[in-house]
Design goal:
Length: 163
């Protein structure tokens, strides 16, 4: 897991990020989704400025965002697409997660819950994207994804009203 080094306020915010919570959240998603075997996910914790640049460069949206996920092209190349062959025992690379800790803190305040819950929620959201969920496909997919996110929060003991 990598921590992004930003300028000024972001580097101070990164120092208080609960890395263990990020790892527990990733593990909870993998267990609840039945993902077996060793896997690898990279996590970048940064600031609004960095996420805005990534959002612009990769999604064509010139605005900050809370979290982005980049699924491994070799993991879901589509039907008939060649898959990258891994050596025996090597972890399967699921992809990358980038999140703005500034957004974590702001959204926790806005939604009236703890920064820990917001951090875990965004990591769970991004992990589900890496596993193929997509709330932007329509209301049914959004509802299914939300149900899985809340299951992860419950497993972590971060239900509404908790810290």
């Amino acid at each position: 897991m990598e921590e992004g080094e930003g300028e000024g306020e972001a580097s101070a915010a990164v120092a208080v990020v609960d890395r263990a919570l990020i790892e527990r959240t990733i593990a909870a998603v993998l267990v609840l989704e039945g993902v077996a075997g060793p896997v690898e996910v990279s996590v970048l914790v940064s600031n609004d400025r960095t996420l805005a640049a990534l959002n612009r460069d990769y999604r064509g949206k010139d605005a900050p965002t809370d979290v982005l996920s980049f699924a491994s092209a070799s993991d879901d190349g589509g039907e008939g697409a060649p898959r990258f062959v891994l050596p025996p025992g090597a972890p399967r690379y699921l992809g990358d997660i980038a999140l703005s800790y500034e957004r974590v803190l702001a959204q926790a305040t806005e939604y009236g819950h703890s920064p820990q819950r917001e951090l875990a929620y965004l990591v769970a959201h991004a992990m589900l994207h890496l596993l193929g969920y997509d709330h932007e496909r329509g209301p049914e997919d959004a509802a299914a994804m939300r149900q899985h996110e809340e299951a992860v929060m419950a497993r972590l003991g971060l239900v509404p009203g908790s810290s």
